[in-house]
Amino acid sequence: MLDKVESNAILDRLPAHLQQYIKPQNYDDYSPINHAVWRYVMRKNVDYLSKVAHESYLDGLKQTGISIDHIPNMYGMNRILKEIGWAAVAVDGFIPPAAFMEFQAFNVLVIASDIRQLEHIEYTPAPDIIHEGAGHAPIIANPEYAEYLRRFGEIGCKAISSAKDYEMYEAIRHLSIIKEAEDTPQQEIEEAEKKVDYLQNNMGKPSEMAQIRNLHWWTVEYGLIGSLEDPKIYGAGLLSSIGESAWCMTDKVKKIPYSIEACKQEFDITKPQPQLYVTPDFAHLSSVLEEFANKMALRKGGLEGIQKLIDSKNLGTIELSTGLQISGDFSKVIEHDGKPIYIQTSGKTALSHREKELVGHSVKNHPNGFGSPIGSLKGINLAIEDMSPRDLRAYDIYEGEKIEFEFEGGIKVKGEIITGTRNLQGKIIIISLKDCTVTYGEEILFKPEWGKYDMAIGKEVISAFAGPADNLSFDLINHKTSTTTIKSKSTPEREELASLYASVRNIREGKNAKFSLDAALELVKKHHPKDWLLFVEIYELAVGKDEKLAKEALSNLQDVKSRRPDISHLIDGGISLINGQLVS
């Protein structure tokens, strides 16, 4: 996909399975109305957020080169972002949480390049360029926060999902798309909301991914920083919402000290949040993240970690104490005294060491699954991985020797040793056998006629995480969604309105316009009386210069307010902003 976008050194590092989500921004597709929406939101935000946002926000707007007047060209933004070690890519709406976080691990901001409709100017449940570009990008100019974001991605993409997490992702993606789309029947929205509600109430025990996604939401998206009495905004969802950024500062929103307990707090993306978490500083975010990571299978491994992978029904990896990594779909574990003594995958499996696939142990070598005992030999205090060459010879663990191992827990391996594979530290990590039989009581786990048997060596499972150890081991270019974002319909009426917005913008920028502000005002009054934002823009240009025109524009805005009371606060906000700037 990178051959279709302007790349740079940071983007060039992205693996192919992440590149599959990238799409061109198609900057020319933004209409003059889209640019007016961006400008209104940004002017309101900068005016208001200068008082309530973390100080990094305004500094970040300057550092990241984000314009208040025009939607940013993110691939132009990349030339500035690279100075702080980051980059940006365009995607189509929500992407799977694991992929989103992995992009962060590569210091890449994922930006949904669509922009909200004028009707949803205050808030949209769908990710858009206002949320991503104006929310996420400025705050990463703070080095401490940027490192938190990168580290969060690094840990988060290893979190194990449940089988239901992807179904929830698809349901939320679908709901966000149809709520943002115009003319969606209310019944369709209600059915989608019911599905999301049902899934939220029937997810079972929250997975690691569900919990870390909660932490992401209450920090990266909806975080406050400072004291409970005087918090500042740093979360992108608040920074990009002119409605919720004001709402969140009222007493109607409960403020809670941020802690690991936030991982248990679910959220609804379609509604304003009833509570928010306040971190004293960015360093505290990293402390909580590490506290959560210490509870993950990534760091604990063991029987629980393997069971999480089995329950996830997704590709995952376990790492043994020798550093050997086994990647595949885990389907079975045999336990003894609370410890795993045998693991089994089904289907394509690969073996790696230090995230690099071992030669001769690709999915082509293990197409039908992989099984191996885990642990120490019965009656021998010294684990195989800790044996010196002399120890190995003494126990007949040697090429050409016929052996009969019995592991603690009762797994028996009988066969002739072909060879062994060592890691860089000299520890045996795989023993290959022929004419091999593996049994557990009366159960036969491997038969000689199945071919060569590769036995993994490791006395314990030290880690279990989502995804493969080596991304090149598997074909991960397989992402398909059941829905795509819905573009606004092009109509003659909308095209005419867009041309009026373009003309007014040209006047503001000192370019040759097709006609005057007076003509633009007359056409809006006559053909587009429900529109309000263009009246605001005309008022802005006329006030202080052409009082008659300004008065007429203001009169029309009052008419729109009487007909559309639901947006009167938006009109008042625009007028106040203009009048306030005149005073200052």
Task: List descriptors.
Phenylalanine Hydroxylase, alpha+beta, 584 residues, 6-stranded antiparallel sheet, elongated
Structure explained in plain terms:
- GO terms for molecular function: iron ion binding; oxidoreductase activity, acting on paired donors, with incorporation or reduction of molecular oxygen, reduced pteridine as one donor, and incorporation of one atom of oxygen.
- By secondary structure, this protein is an alpha+beta fold.
- Among the domains are: 11-162 and 203-214, Orthogonal Bundle (Phenylalanine Hydroxylase), CATH 1.10.800; 330-466, no CATH class; 492-579.
- The mean pLDDT is 90.
- The strands form four sheets. Strands 7, 8, 9, 10, 11 and 17 form a six-stranded antiparallel beta sheet that branches.
- It is elongated.
- The protein is 41% helix and 18% strand.
Any idea what the CATH architecture of the domain at 11-162 and 203-214 is? Orthogonal Bundle
Helix fraction?
40-55%
From the N-terminal CA to the C-terminal CA, the straight-line distance is: 48 Å
Largest sheet: 6 strands, antiparallel
| Structure class | alpha+beta
Number of strands: 17
CATH superfamily label of the domain at 11-162 and 203-214: Aromatic amino acid hydroxylase
Domain Biopterin-dependent aromatic amino acid hydroxylase family profile: 1-342
InterPro entries: ArAA_hydroxylase, ArAA_hydroxylase_sf, Aro-AA_hydroxylase_C_sf, Aromatic-AA_hydroxylase_C
Pfam family, one: Biopterin_H
Keywords: Iron, Metal-binding, Monooxygenase, Oxidoreductase
